[in-house]
Amino acid sequence: MSKKGKKANVVRWNESVDGTLNEINIREKFKRMGIRAEKHVLQPGTDFPEHTHETEKKDAILSGGFKIKMFGVSNKLKPGDFIDIPANAVHSSGVVGKETVIFFDGSM
How many other CB atoms sit within 10 Å of the CB of residue 87? Predict the structure, then answer.
């Protein structure tokens, strides 16, 4: 499948709808979507080379900066960002900056 015309779907946290950004509320948002999410803590310097997943995923950032390059575009994610990663989409990712990243990985 061609990358042309594809772009990442990033949804920002909406405090008026989702409440205060914290672990409990992120888990609740995933639960409302019918997704079970796993928490991961990544240290600065962590990078994941290009890879794919067999199933669709949705990731959310609780703290720190995280980048995901997909469809030839680099997306810098900040706390409260959710991103959809389609099944079999080639992507790479990693921690941005010197802050530990806490993120949630939801497989669909």
Answer: 12
d(CA 101, CA 108): 22
Six-digit token string for 76: 């810098």
| Region of 5 on the Ramachandran plot (φ > 0 left; ψ -120 to 50 alpha; else beta) | left
Average pLDDT, the chain: 93
Residue 2 has pLDDT above 90, yes or no: no
The CA distance from 34 to 81, in Å, is: 18
Copy the structure tokens of residue 105: 């990985």
Rounded-to-integer distance, Cα 59 and Cα 108, Å: 11
Confidence of residue 6 (pLDDT cuts 50, 70, 90): confident
Single pTM value for the model: 0.89
Cβ–Cβ under 8 Å, residues 73 and 8: yes
pLDDT at 7 over 90: no
Distance CA 4, CA 83 (A): 19
